[in-house]
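ugh ok fine here u go
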Amino acid sequence: MAAPAPDLPPQSPATTVALPAPLFTGQALLKRSLRWSSLLCLVYVTVCSGPFGLEEFVQSVGPGMAFLLLLITPIFWGLPLLFMSAELSSALPLEGGLYRWVKTAFGDFWGFQAGWWWWLSSFLDCAIYAVLVADYFEFFYPHMNAFAHWGIALAVIWFFTFLNVRGIEVIGASSTIFVVLMLAPFVIMIILGVPQISQNPFTPLLPPGENFMATFSSGLLMSIWFISGFEALASASEEIQNSARVLPRALRIIFPTILLSYGLPILVSLAVDANWQSWESGHFAKIAETLGGPLLGGWVSLAGVIANMALFGTWLLSYSRIPFAMANDGYLPKAIARISPRYGTPVFAIVFSAVIYSLVSWFDFRSLVEMDIWVILPGMFLEFLALAKLRRSHPHLTRHFRVPGGKWGLAFTVISPIAIGLFAMFGGGAEYIFPGAIALASGPLAFWLCKRFVKNVHRPGGFTPAA
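structure:
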């Protein structure tokens, strides 16, 4: 039987929900093989993976608004998300990550909702990266039809599904090479572009004829997506050596790198290319070709392919552990908890998710992003609330990182991102509210159906229901 996780002293009255034990203590089913160097690169890839995708963002909101949002969002969304992820991953370094944090704080129902909504969002999120890979291939094949575009997306999905089945060490080992190949052409592009700066990159503020508030709220949805993912790798905590200490440290190191990766390429690109209204996914490659010739343009386009393949691989790793943990807790069919005896990976959860991603990858990039954010934000709100709740209900948990600033810092970390997220959800993109609401409503229904019909038992290390 799994060894119990550290909990409050028995005499403490502060415990409202029993702490979960690690799923695999004393039973090394999943390989614990991700080391520090690979983790650092994986965190970068998961949250950012370069500036790819910003082209369509600039085209839709305007240069000035793009910079305004990329200044506001890291402060009021990115830092709170980093702080929350660092504290909870150090306090509860458990397989399933956010699902198990919320369940520990609020019990079975809300834990299930958080896990379910994140898994639903993965059907959109992972498809986004496969679609972006196909977008960047259009540099090499500009007359590609819709079916060829989809075929490239499918090839990406199933190649990285194969790698994920092989194990976390395969994804981790490739991450350093991916990061170098992704960022090197942008360093060259920036060096070549600075002497050719000829215009103000911050104007105009908005696209002609657009309303400030509508553009701001719609753009906020996309900028949130660009500054998200800090909690992602925590879902594989039991596969990371000493994750309670190294994961929070990796998050803090990578944050400034992410800001530079977004800010510098877009700054130089807008300063040398005034035709921002024609930008679309893959346009950085055209700017690079103008600055450094076909070789640099091809390298940037290839880097876009590599970046989004890497994103798909790491997010498939993260997302697949959530239904895996839910199945181990008895809320999803037992098959989803099946582990490959050869590779030590949750093979069924990985493959089943890939089937769904294959279907969703038919849609375009911007539609997927805005629907994805609408579905995922409520689950993220639960994470922030869990941070505050666990401070009260489990104050004696060992926290190798704590949100700085005392009570005021904690209040900012919880309130600011929830306020930003609610404004983004309801301030624009009204066409996504109805499908987003349906997706959210599926959570309570799925909880009832799973409790009623899933014939699975709680395994050692599962959760104790709320008292």
